[in-house]
User: Which sequence fits this backbone?
């Protein structure tokens, strides 16, 4: 089994998630620019979610270029990862309409956390089905970043109930670090 | 005619089905976690349907890697299979909002049954357009599993009207067995 | 420029059209089977549209397997064809909710007619950018069928205002003939 | 990293944007042809947006056929471009329902402008990551057209508040010129 269909299917699911979220941004009835202000929360949450899906697509793309064989375990670890990603539009919509309310914000962080965990599981399954050389080459320098970002999401979830503005800051930070890393380090590896 | 476009089109349709279902999970108006409880039925039915579409994508992927030629019959058997799969979001939504009511539950089982039957037809058409060697290599060890699961769906449909909880159990069992089988047996075959 | 991205983009658009139509089939509020009866019109119009999109995907697949170069003219003839196909969900929804009312039925036929005409234009553009040998091999035996089906759609549009049941019959006939032809004749050509 | 997944992902996103826009064209309740007249604004804005997404898909297709390596910077410049394109359905819907009202029309022009700017950025990033020969071959004859069209969009945005009909004319002109150019000049380059 080659990786081409797994990649194509994953690309399809991520393309749909990233595009369809914006349809929750309903056109307002009024036609003045002020009518857009209540949409700001949905817009910002869309922007953050767009960036996260972009990061995961980029990570997935990067991870699978070195993979030679696909097994049933890898297929299901990938579907598990896609399941959590597919919940992002739902939590994005809930948090976007209720800005800094605690439960939507905590659930949004929980989805980010589960996406992160399921991606780590996907990596682990792939490494176990391949060899040690593969691990050393690809995964090792991702590990530290991933551990830290899972910790940051967890703290963000707790902060949602006490200091929502800080929680948002915790959700955004790993994304900014990751984009920076992808832009400045993926150059060498290609 | 190569199989690449048939695979790409099928991947596209399955990616859309699996992703769009979650949009029936509308964000609640309230912002407390209790507001999510009424969504539990829709969420569970989404989870089960996600798993079934994942299983069929996996099966399809597995089946088509051995196929060398695509004919008009195979194209239409595949479209017939996609038609029944495309009804899953509709029945998922109906059953999810009405939990254990008999008609939605029976219709959900009927859709699962028709997906199963149309996949068996697709396999039969492919085997008939190829040779006997192909059949012995691929299909034979699927046959028993498929017969049993079609029977289980049929019993589940009947049970929907008398013991809905048991019906749900009948719908979930073939999925769990299939995931187990795909994780532990596809390893050898790749 | 190879044909691969044009095919992938077209597959994506057709996969979305064919799948998203079913989302107009909203789950009824009631939970008895009778609640599905008012959905019958939408279901039947979905089925017919699903078949037409399937036929066009099949035709497109068949046409492009012989094409060697893609030019700007071919790209825009293809986008023109996709534009008319993208209107099918709108007209399907209108006709499905109003069964045999004249205007929706005529508009549905008009969309079928424009899809047919734009596919003929796409073929003509492709032939003109290639050579005569290409035309004789591929197109010639399609031409008669296409002329007849464009005529049948046109008659169907007129009949929508006088004998809607007959109009539906005129819309379905070319599809049945085409499926039959694709199943029994594409075998030889592959 | 090859360009194939970046192309597939972009094709997926553009296919969804171009197709899903038409779902904002809700079927009217009445069944006479007059019921379609209030839909004319949405239909025209859909048509213009369909053409713009088609142009960008065509440009993207054209640009990436010469690209040999993909870096993190190119991936993010591409995601930035897709972000602005993904807002087109929202602004299309707002302007379509409010025809020539100033704010929706200006916002529509702003989205066109940002799509244009982000495509220019994508080109610049690609050129900087490749060599000078690449630039001279591909980009140079695009530059003048792009500068002029960005200027035309900007004037259109200003005109939205004073002469909306002229603004629409300014939005349509670059599209017509571009289609003409793609149909008559891409022939030589392929």
Assistant:
């Amino acid at each position: 089994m080659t990786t081409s269909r797994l990649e194509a299917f994953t690309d399809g699911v991520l393309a749909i998630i990233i595009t369809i979220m914006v349809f929750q941004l309903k056109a307002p009835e009024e036609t003045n620019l002020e009518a857009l202000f209540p949409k700001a929360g949905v817009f910002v949450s869309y922007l953050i979610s767009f960036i996260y899906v972009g990061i995961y697509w980029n990570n997935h793309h990067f991870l699978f270029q070195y993979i030679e064989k696909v097994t049933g375990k890898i297929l299901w670890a990938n579907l598990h990862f896609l399941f959590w990603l597919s919940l992002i539009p739902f939590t994005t919509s809930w948090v976007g309409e209720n800005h800094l309310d605690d439960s939507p914000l905590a659930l949004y962080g929980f989805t980010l956390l589960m996406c992160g965990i399921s991606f780590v599981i996907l990596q682990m399954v792939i490494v176990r089905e391949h060899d040690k050389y593969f691990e050393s080459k690809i995964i090792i320098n991702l590990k530290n970043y991933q551990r830290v970002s899972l910790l940051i999401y967890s703290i963000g979830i707790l902060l949602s109930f006490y200091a929502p503005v800080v929680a948002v800051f915790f959700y955004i930070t790993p994304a900014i670090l990751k984009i920076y890393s992808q832009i400045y380090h993926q150059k060498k590896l290609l």
Notes: Chain A has seven helices and no strands. Chain A has one domain: 4-21+40-189. The mean pLDDT of chain A is 84. Chain A touches chain D through 37 residues (CB under 8 Å).
